[in-house]
Write a structure and sequence with these properties.
- The chain is α+β, with helices and mostly antiparallel strands.
- The chain has a domain at 25-84.
- 29% of the residues lie in helices and 27% in strands.
- It has two helices and four strands, in the order ββααββ.
- It has a four-stranded mixed beta sheet with strand order 1-2-4-3, covered by helices on one side.
- The protein starts with 7 loop residues before the first strand and ends in a 13-residue tail after the last strand.
- The model has no long low-confidence stretch (mean pLDDT 90).
Length: 97
């Protein structure tokens, strides 16, 4: 289920973390779900943060960010945040004179 902040939350207990929150800004719901599946598959095999980072780096070289949220608010357990970089786009063209 997609959270109110636009992320998908995956249960994952490793290295002191209890979940992974997956974001895909400026991408549609289908792309978010597809990326979350890849993260979930990697997380099933990789039981460390460094292992998960390495597995995702092989699949999405330079196209994601992984960061730790060790002190979340509202009493949440520590979790990882994995964000798929926004899609590249053409810069705004120069206006015609």
């Amino acid at each position: 289920m997609i959270e109110l902040d636009g992320s998908l939350r995956l249960a994952w207990s490793a290295d002191g973390f209890f979940a992974i929150r997956v974001f895909a800004p400026r991408r549609d719901r289908v792309e978010l779900i597809a990326f979350a599946r890849v993260v979930a598959d990697a997380a099933l095999v990789e039981r460390t943060v460094s292992g998960l980072r390495g597995a995702l780096q092989q699949l999405y070289p330079g196209a994601f960010e992984l960061r730790a949220q060790r002190h979340p608010r509202d009493g949440e357990e520590p979790y990882l945040v994995v964000t798929l970089d926004p899609p590249r786009h053409e810069p705004n063209p120069d206006p015609e004179p």
